[in-house]
Amino acid sequence: MTNAPNPIRLEGLTLTSKAFNHGNGALRRPEPTSWPKPSPIVSTLPQVEPFAPDLLPEALRAYVLDVADRQQSPPDFAAVAALCGLAAVVGNKARIRPKQHDDWMVVPNLWGAIVGRPSAMKSPAMQSALGPVYGLQDEMRELWQQRCASLAVDEALAGLDAADAKSKAKKALKVGDRDAAKEIMAGAMGSSDEGEPCPRLIIGDATFEKVGELLSENSNGLLLVRDELPGFLARLESAEFQNERAFYLESFNGDGSFVFDRIARGTISIPICTISLVGGVQPSRIAPLVRGAISGTSNDGLLQRLQLSVWPDDIPSWRWVDRAPDPLARVAYERAFRDLRDLPAQADGEPLVLRFSPPAQTAFREWMEETQSEARSGALPSTMESHILKMPKTVASLALLFQLIDGHSETVGEEATLRALDWADYLRSHANRLYAAGQTMAEEGAKLIIERRSQIPAQFTPRDIQRKAWGGLADRDAVASALEMLVASHHCREIPASGGNGRPSTSYVWNPALTVEG
Q1: Whole-Å CA distances, 162 to 148, 167, 190, 264
Q2: Which residue in 44, 120, 50 sits closest to 429, CA to CA?
Q3: Residue 305: which of 261, 258, 247, 266 has the closest Cα?
Q4: pTM here?
Q5: Where are the beta strands (DSSP E) in 288-371?
Q6: How far is CA 480 from CA 164, 358, 463, 483, in A?
């Protein structure tokens, strides 16, 4: 009499010993007895506040909206790039003391990121918004070249003067008048200082040692512009670049110093390390950075320093726009940058320092008390808590910038401060979306695997998916998060198996209902 095979129960599946291949002990694909109905995978991307034109001072507003209309891009992109550019132009010329008596002082440098899918016009919007900054840098370079040319002429004439002085000094020595010879040569000697370096406002892809060298030559600060910000941020994630990470973390405050000691470059001292930053990010590439900040693997506040991060909704409808830029809007916009570039220097050479007016101080204090209480309540995730605790610097910086754009004043007024507080609410909604990216990208990855399941084996492994390098699914953690969601929603099941070398691995099989649906 033949005994019936003993059933084996495994995570909701019923297998028999016939499911084994006795040649190598590996499991063949089992036949599931029952499956729950797959539940829909719905993205949970939080809603964000739409960009309101009144968030910008009148001098910037029309041009930013003009750029957005002509490029059919969200106005958020150009607005954030404009503010980061203005912050770099002001740099160390002005500061704000957010309290009436305390010595807390804020440098108005800003870090921003514009998040959008590929072809969302991030780079064109950023370049249009930063046009005046590039223009100012070109003017600075042209003036520097003129000074260099004039200096070259002066040096040539000095050479002739030196030759003449040398001849006269020889004659004085011949008659024994050594003091006269010394006086002649001293009067003819030029300055031993090297020529001034070429001034800069903007930097791109450069080593942090080179950035430090440029900062030592440009004490007002610099603007770091990256079309693809994740490449810069991912570099800072590597263990070999932790010194570079520390340098940029320091530069966010804008008032610290830094010293480089290198064999090739010698010692480079940066008295004031001030950097503003802006760049573009694709949603699929920000998710790993968010997961690192949430998990604690890179939770030192780097991501939270991107205070002006915006992730607007896609424009629902696109239309063809072909017209010239609004000339009046462009003139007013460029004038705002020039006015901040030409802020009058203080008599003592120190930065202009402003405080809030009494009504503005009340508004800022009330907002800060409410924000700090929320951040310390223990009810927020650690990433959002860290983000909120850095917002007072951002709000104070924006209030100062808005006041300077509207016109020089002895104090930062109520209108500029309330506008900055409106930005705080607007940016908070975008921060909520940013820190939800890890979960949202898992949902998007799960939906992508379902759509492309015909391209992988019927019984597949995480490695089968990772090798495809689909958008947002190129790393192991992203694939694992997406598969976890697919299992939880009953689209597939795990099948523990044994590989040929005896090491345990995990495979997955699809819910037959998906096969029936096609």
Answers
A1: 20, 9, 9, 34
A2: 50
A3: 247
A4: 0.77
A5: 308-310, 352-356
A6: 80, 54, 10, 5
Which single residue is written with the structure tokens 């430090």? 212
Axis crossing angle, helix 327-341 with helix 131-174, rounded to the nearest 10: 40
CA distance 18 to 28: 9
* pLDDT for position 271: 82
Tokens of 255: 């008032």
Would you mind telling me the total number of residues written for the chain in this entry?
Answer: 518
pLDDT < 50 stretches in the chain: 1-32, 192-193
Q: Look at strands 275-281 and 308-310 and give their pairing.
A: unpaired
Structure tokens given for 19: 């499911």
The tokens describing 17, both together, are: 């010993």
Q: If residue 408 lies in a helix (H) or strand (E), which one and from where to where?
A: none
Token pair of 36 as six digits: 């729950």
Asked if 257 and 269 touch (Cβ cutoff 8 Å), the reply is yes
**Residue 23 CB contacts under 8 Å (≥ 6 apart), including other chains:** none
- Nearest CA among 31, 475, 284, 44 for reference residue 483: 475
Q: Cα Rg for the chain, rounded, in angstroms?
A: 31
Inter-CA distances, 273 with 215, 324, 431, Å:
7, 39, 26
Q: Residue 26's CB: how many other CB atoms inside 10 A?
A: 12
Query: Is 416:360 a contact under the CB 8 Å cutoff?
Result: yes
Tokens 């249009």 map to which residue?
A: 128
Token duo for residue 105:
């002082």
What ranges make up the beta strands (E) of 82-175? Answer: 94-97, 111-115
Query: Could you give the CA distance from residue 87 to residue 83 in angstroms, rounded to a whole number?
Result: 6
Q: Looking at residue 26, what is its pLDDT? A: 46
Q: For 464-471, which contacts have Cβ atoms below 8 Å and span 24 or more sequence positions? A: 470/445, 471/284
